[in-house]
Amino acid sequence: MSNVAVAAPRKTRGPWAVAFAKLATDGAAMASLAVFLLIVLACLSAPLYAKWAGVDPFASTLDAVIQIDGADVPVMEQSTEGLGLGYTPLGPTWRLGNYFLGADSQGRDVMARMLYGGLSSLLISGAATIFTLILGTAAGLIAGYFGGVTDTVLSRFLDILWAFPIYLLAISLSIVTIAHGITIGPIQIESGSLWLPVIIIGIVYVPYVARPIRGQVLALRKSEFVLAAINLGVPGWRILWRDILPNVTTTLIVFVPLMMALNMLTESALSFLSIGVQPPAASWGTIIQDGQALLYTRPLVALVPGLAIAVSVMALNVFGDGLRDALDPRSKVRLGRD
Amino acid sequence: MKKLLLAATAAALLAGTWLAPAQAEYLKEHRGGTIRLLARSAAGTLDPHINYTDQGWQMYQPIYDGLVAFRKAEGMDGFTIVPDLAEALPQVSNDGKTFTFKLRKGIKFSSGQDLGVKDVVASFQRIFKVSGPTSGTFYAGIVGADKCLADTKSCTLEGGVVGDEAAGTITINITKPDAELLYKLALPHAVVLPADTPAEDMGSKPIPSTGAYMISAFDPNKGMTVSRNPNFKQWSEEAQPDGYPDVVQYDFGLSEEAAVTAIQNGEADWMFDALPSDRLGELGSKSMDQLHISPLSAWWYAPLNNRLAPFDNEKARQAVAYAIDRNTLVKLFGGKVLASPVCQVLPPDFPGHEDYCPFTKNPGAKWSAPDLDKAKQLVEDSGTKGQKVTIIVEDTAISRSIGVYLQSVLTSIGYVADVKPISSNIQFTYIQNTNNKVQMSVTQWYKDYPAASDFLNILFSCASFREGSDASINIAGFCDKEIDAKMQKALDLGVTDQKAADKMWAEIDRQVTDKAPAVGLFTPKRLDFVSKRLGNFKFNRQFNWMITQSWVQ
Description:
Chain B: This is ABC transporter substrate-binding protein. Chain A has 13 helices and 6 strands.
C-alpha cells in the first residue's frame, strides 16, 4: 500500500451557487429582501384581514359605527362646534382589525385598503416587470443578433419610445385607454382591468431593458462560440435561445428588482392621477389621492401609503444592488470591495 | 295715518331712496383700499361676449353693463331686472315682438369714448360675429339671427337690432314673443362694448367698459387688476352702483389649502374655489364670523342615458332614483348646512318649484329615505339585473366620492358597476357626446337666469339633444314629444301670464321627475370664506357675492 496520498478532486461550486452565497453574505441586501417579503406577505393577507376585521374596503360606509372600549364611535364624525360644517373620518385606533389606521373620506378602513392597495401595486408592478422583460429581451436579442435593417428599425423605434418623457407617455396612453380599454383583434382589455396599467407601464419601459440587452448581444454576436455555431450552420433562433440568452440572464435577473421598483413608482403616480387603478379598487397611489383631501385632519391616510411605497422601492433597490454585486464579477472591481 | 306712513315707507324703500343716503355715508367712511381675491386659475378669456363661467360673470358685474341688468341687491331681489344703460325698461309692442329702449346720455367707456347707439347695435352683432356660446340659443330669436348664425362674419342683424342715433333708441325685434328676453339681455353675453372692438375673441386683452370699474391688467397665469373707471358717474344704484375698494386684485395660482391660510392670515380677502373639505370643521368652529352660507339655484344630478341599456328602460332609471341615499350624498358634500337632498329638477325658491319627491320611502313632497326593496324590485321587473354600468365622474375629491358611493348603490341593487374619474377639463363635454356611450355620469347645472325653462327646457327638451356633439346639454338624451309640447306652451304662456306659466312648469317638473331621465342628488349652497377686515358682505342670487359692494377699510 502506498502512503502517497492521492489528492481528492477539488469540488468547485457553480457560478449560481457562488453568486447566491455571496448574496447571502450581503447583510443590507438580505435585510431588504426580508422587508420586501414581509410587505408581500402582509399584502397577500389582505382578504383574510378584511374578513377577520369584518370590513368591506371597497364600499362606502359613511354611516358605520364601531365599538372602541365598549363605546359606539361613528367612522365619520360630524363637527358639532360652531356651524357644524363637514365630517371628519375616524383617526387611527391602533387596534388591529378595528380601523387600525382610521377611516378615509368614504368611511372605509384604511388598513384594509392599504393591504389591498399593496396587493394591486405589487401585482401590477410585478406583471409589468415580466411584460417589460419579455418584450425588452426579445427586442434586444433580435436587434443585436440580426443587425442590419432589423437593428436599425428596432433601435430607432426604441429611441423614439425612449425620447418621450416616461410619465408623459404613460399618462398619454392611460388617458387614451382609460374610458374604453384596448381592443386588438379578439383581445379586449376592459377599461377597469388591472391589465391596462400593466400593459401601459410595461410598454413605456421596454427601451430601458432592450437597449442594454442589445449592447450585450452585439458583443456576444462576435464571440468565438457564437461564430463557431454560425459557421456550423446552427439556426439563428437556436443560437439565440441556447447560446446568447443564457449569457444575458444575469443582467435580466438584476433588472427584476430594479424594474419592479420603477414600475411601482409609475403605477402609484398613474393611480394618483386617476389614470391607473380605478376606484373603488385600491392601490397605494389611489390611497394617497384619497388622503390628499384629508391632509389637514387625517394626514396618515396619505402618509402611510407614501411610506409603504418608499420602503418597498428602497428595499427593491438595495436588494437589486446586492444582486448585481453578486451576479456581476466586475462589480467587485468597480465598487472596490472584496 | 299710520297706514299711510307705512305705505310711504314701503314706497320709499322700493324706490331705493332710503338706501342712497346710507350708501353715500358708507362710501365716505369705507371708500378706498385694495381687496384681494384668490382663485386656483383664471376664468378663461376676458371677453364678456364669450366667457361663460361663474367666476367670469361674477367679476364682470361692476365692470360691464347691458341695456338692462339684474338688480345689484341682496338675495332674491337680485333676480329683478332693472334698466341699466337704457333709461327705462323697454316699451313692448307688436304683440310682444318689439322692444324699444332709450339709451341714457352722458355715459362714457373707460377709454374715454362716449357710449352711443352704434355701440349697442355693434355689440349685438358681435355676439354672433365671435360665435358667442349662447348666440344660437339665448339670442337666436332676434330677427336676422338665423342669417348671422349661418354666416357669422357678415352679421348685420338687419331688422333685428335697429338703432336710431337721432332719437337715441334701440329697437330689438324678435321672431316670436319671449318672456325671458330681458333676462337674456341682462347677462354678460349681451353687455355693450365699444363699436370698434375687434370681432374676435379678445383673450387676455381687456375691453373698455362702462361700469364703475375697468380691467387695468391681466395675466392668465398671475392675476387680474381691476381699478376704478375714471369716467364713471353713477347713474343707477340698482344697476351699476359705485363700489368701495379702489382696486380689486384677483390673484391666480394658489391651491385651495394655501388660499384658506392666506385668508386666515389676512393676506387675502376671499377665495373663489370651494373650501377644502378637511378644513370645514375647523373653519366652521373657529372662523364662524368669516363664513357666509348662501343658497344657490343649482342642481347636482346624475344623468342616465335614456338611449343606452340599461337606462333606456324607465323602470331601471326609477330603480336608481329610489336607491340613492341623498343624505349620504349631502354628507359627502359637507353636511346639511351646505346641501339639501332633492328628487326633482327645479331648485328650491326657483320659479315653478313646488316640492315633489316620488322616489323616497314615503313618496310626497320631500325626500325622507332610500327605498332599496322597491329599487331591487324595479331592477328585477326591468330585466336589466346583472348589466354593466360605468359612471363617469369629474376627477375632483367630491365627484370621485359621489361616484364611488353611486357605484356601491348600483352594485347593491344588482348591477355590475364601475367608476371612471376623468379630468374636470373634459368631463362635461365628454358626457354630452353620444359617441362616448356614457351610461351614467355626475354633473351640476347652475342657472343662467331665474326661469324654470333654464333647467327643464335646456336640460330635457328634444332640441337640446344633438347626436355626436360635445354640446348636447340634454346629457340624458331624454325626448318626450308630449312634455316638449307642454314646455313650448309654458314658454308661450309666460309672455302673458308668468304665474300661470310657472304653475305649468311645476307640472312639467313633476312629469320629467317621474320619468327619471336623471336622478336629482342635492342642491348645494355657496360657502364664502372672507377675511376679518372685509365688511358689508352681500350675496346676490343671480351673480353671487357682489365684490365691490364690500369694503376693506
